[in-house]
Design brief:
The chain is an alpha/beta fold. It contains 17 helices and 21 strands. The chain has helices at 6-28, 33-41, 57-67, 107-117, 124-144, 176-190, 256-263, 291-294, 321-333, 355-361, 363-373, 430-452, 459-478, 485-499, 506-523, 537-561, 579-582; strands spanning 47-53, 74-78, 94-95, 158-159, 169-170, 193-197, 199-207, 210-218, 223-234, 268-269, 274-281, 298-300, 346-349, 382-391, 394-396, 410-412, 417-418, 503-504, 570-571, 584-591, 594-601. The strands form five sheets. Strands 1, 2, 6, 7, 8, 9 and 16 form a seven-stranded mixed β-sheet that branches. It has a five-stranded mixed β-sheet with strand order 17-15-10-20-21. A four-stranded antiparallel β-sheet has the order 11-14-13-12. Helix 5 crosses helix 12 (430-452) and helix 15 packs antiparallel against helix 16. The longest helix is centred in the C-terminal third of the chain and has 25 residues, at 537-561. Mean pLDDT is 92; it is low at 1-44. Bound molecules: flavin-adenine dinucleotide. Residues 53-59, 77-80, 85-87, 89-94, 176-177, 200-201, 235-237, 248-249, 252-253, 256, 287, 289, 390, 414-416, 428-432, 435 line the site of flavin-adenine dinucleotide.
Length: 614
């Protein structure tokens, strides 16, 4: 037998492993994800027609739409593996007025429920478009192979979620997002999409108003690379991690795309509108889906009272999230909760649903309560409390039909964007619907732009930006003293939960702004005690914190300026809605350390603002 040196043997091993990993994708994807990744690793800058950042539902749907146009070079970049994101955690369902479960439903009703749910801050033209396109988007997913639960007659089943008049949420048990995301991933592989996985976006590069591309770090090699692009679709998800330990969001929801857009002058809209989901597990903030209440679960206080009858007598537990979260917090404050401090809670009681229904319709939820709280939903009530869940605010989109932003060639879609479909409060099931409806239009918008516009970006500016990141890496990783990233992050999260949480006031918000300004200062000289290049997650966390701190500042600042209560934004010192002054979007821009705030009127086409009653 021929002798093989240890070095050659190892090389073969690596190559064989690489082929094994890449094989399924190579077979399905002509452009070959693996080769493309290797090319980037070698440092050769590529020019993509459409570069999508983020592989949640919105990024996948956008990439798929662009990728179907075979002559375009499309890539999907994500800092995780492509099938991990907030989307894959979505449990309850995805809305569309299909009228399967209830023939009385209509596009009109879906639009109205969404406008009312938004506390009239949603833009009604965008909402109407959304409600019109949602049924078609659901049918497309069905066609692509999403395994939706079915009714006896074979049509997609639909369940009721909070704030909706009719049952209009299609679902796959309580794992709807996971099933949708995996299906979209398969379709992307089949349709020409290059996967740049475990690549972290560091910066969007725009010179003289012209898009050049992005700078990103390939986590595999640790290389910081310029990537040229005719168009960039930012689809990086929300900023729930500003509340770090009390959120349902994945660790990736750090507002990176929003940070990148702010840096090139694209404003953020309505950042103060942060949703608190009513049913986070008391100890961890992990989500128990609204599906639990959709299937008939009760909310009870320590006296066993179904307290929602005092807050939303018609809708009861299926009131909108803002109202139910505020009701839970009031029960706790007024002594009708159980437990102490951060662990104070009320109960979600599913026992009356019976074992069979819980196991069939809510299996994941039962498991989560068992794993994180040690409570079996079949025999025990589950302690729950509000937890940060969704970012209604985000990158200011100027044309909802293409998801274009103010900078030509830059598009934004999904939770990182603000179109604004959800206004001051999102309804359950409307986010998954938003990401697939507008993901498609963002993909089309970017593809059309790439077709009609030659690349005009400055490659030198792109290279320079990459060099600056190299220098920054060297500087922060060689520093030996200063605050650590986790220490600053934990204090940011504590400030956000205590001062910019479910109930807000001038004193607390002013305190938050002061605290965050101090943390921003501390961040400038913080340390990253890891000089290695390969999978340097400490550096990754440093970059994420650099995006979160300015965003935290904006949330607090915008909440302070909005002297009214609307949707998820509740001011104890201004408990009423003020349409005369604040039926407007907050628009925040950032220039270095300077933040400026203006307002823009809401698009009102069909429904005049009126008092919300449930
Ligand atoms: C636990 C949970 C349950 C939910 N249940 C429902 C539900 O039942 N129905 C519903 O409608 N909505 C639900 N939602 C909300 C919904 O899932 C999300 O709003 C939606 O999926 C967001 O999709 P997205 O594509 O915008 O972002 P995400 O799915 O968050 O994807 C963001 C992507 O961007 C990538 N990324 C981020 N930063 C970078 C960077 N710097 N570089 C490269 N890549 C980056 C991430 O890796 C990820 O791939 C739920 C959310 C959670 C957390």
């Amino acid at each position: 037998m021929k002798k093989v040196s240890r070095r050659t043997f190892l090389k073969w091993g690596v190559a064989a492993g690489a082929v094994a990993v890449a094989a399924p994708y190579v077979m399905m994807n002509k452009n070959n994800m693996f080769t493309s990744t290797l090319t980037e690793m070698a440092g050769a800058p590529a020019l993509f027609d459409v570069l999508v950042i983020g592989s949640g539902g919105s990024g996948m749907r956008a990439a798929l739409e662009a990728g179907r146009q075979k002559d375009l070079k499309v890539a999907l970049m994500t800092k995780l593996v492509p099938t991990r994101s907030a989307t894959c955690m979505a449990q309850g369902g995805i809305n569309g007025a299909l009228r399967h479960a209830d023939a009385r439903d209509s596009i009109e009703k879906h639009a109205f429920d969404t406008v009312k749910g938004s506390d009239y801050l949603g833009d009604q033209d965008a909402i109407r478009f959304f409600a019109e396109k949602a049924p078609e988007a659901l049918r497309e997913l069905d066609y692509y192979g999403v395994a939706f639960d079915r009714m006896q007659d074979g049509r997609m089943a639909q369940r009721n979620l909070g704030g909706h008049t009719y049952a209009r949420s299609a679902y796959s048990a309580d794992q709807s997002g996971l099933v949708i995301l995996h299906t979209l991933f398969e379709q992307c592989l089949k349709n020409n999409v290059n996967m740049l996985m475990e690549w972290q976006l560091l910066e969007l590069v725009v010179e003289d108003g012209k898009l050049c591309g992005v700078v990103a770090m390939n986590m595999h090699s640790g290389k910081i690379l310029p990537v040229m692009a005719r168009t960039v679709v930012v689809a990086t998800g929300g900023y729930g991690r500003l509340y770090w330990v009390r959120t349902t969001n994945p660790f990736s929801s750090t507002g990176d795309g929003i940070g990148a857009c702010l840096k090139v002058g694209i404003p953020v809209k309505d950042p103060e509108m942060v949703q608190f989901h009513p049913t986070g597990l008391a100890g961890s903030g992990v989500l128990l889906s609204e599906a639990a209440r959709g299937e008939g679960g009760y909310l009870v206080n320590k006296d066993g009272e179904r307290f929602m009858r005092r807050y939303a007598p018609d809708k009861m537990e299926l009131g909108p999230r803002d109202l139910v979260s505020q009701a839970i917090e009031t029960e706790i404050r007024e002594g009708r909760g159980v437990g102490e401090g951060l662990h104070a809670a009320v109960y979600l009681d599913l026992r009356h649903l019976g074992k069979k229904k819980i196991m069939q319709k809510l299996p994941q939820l039962r498991q989560l309560a068992l794993n994180y709280e040690g409570v079996d939903a079949i025999t025990q009530p589950i302690p729950i409390r509000g937890t940060c869940h969704y970012s209604m605010g985000g990158i200011d989109v100027v044309d909802y039909k293409t998801c274009a932003t103010a900078i030509p060639g830059v598009f934004a879609v999904g939770e990182c964007s603000c179109l604004s479909v959800h206004g001051a409060n999102r309804l359950g099931g409307n986010s998954l619907a938003e990401v697939v409806v507008f993901g498609k239009y963002a993909g089309n918008g970017a593809a059309a732009y790439a077709r009609n516009n030659a690349f005009d970006g400055n490659q030198t500016a792109l290279d320079r930006a990459a060099d600056e990141w190299e220098q920054r890496f060297a500087a922060v990783s060689s520093r030996s003293s200063g605050s650590t990233v986790p220490s600053i992050r934990d204090r940011m999260a504590a400030t956000m939960w205590q001062n910019v949480g479910i109930f807000r006031s001038r004193t607390r918000l002013e305190q938050a702004v002061r605290n965050i300004d101090e943390l921003l200062e501390e961040y400038r000289s913080c340390v990253v005690r890891d000089t290695t290049r390969i999978y340097n997650t400490a550096f990754m966390n440093y970059v994420e914190l650099g995006n979160m701190l300015p965003l935290a500042r904006m949330v607090a600042m915008a909440a302070l300026a909005r002297q009214e209560s609307r949707g998820s934004h509740f001011r104890e010192d201004y408990p009423r809605r003020n349409d005369q002054k604040f039926l407007q979007h907050t628009i925040v821009t950032r220039k270095g350390a300077e933040y400026s705030l203006t307002y823009r009127p809401v698009a009102i086409t069909d429904y005049q603002a009126e008092e919300r009653k449930y």
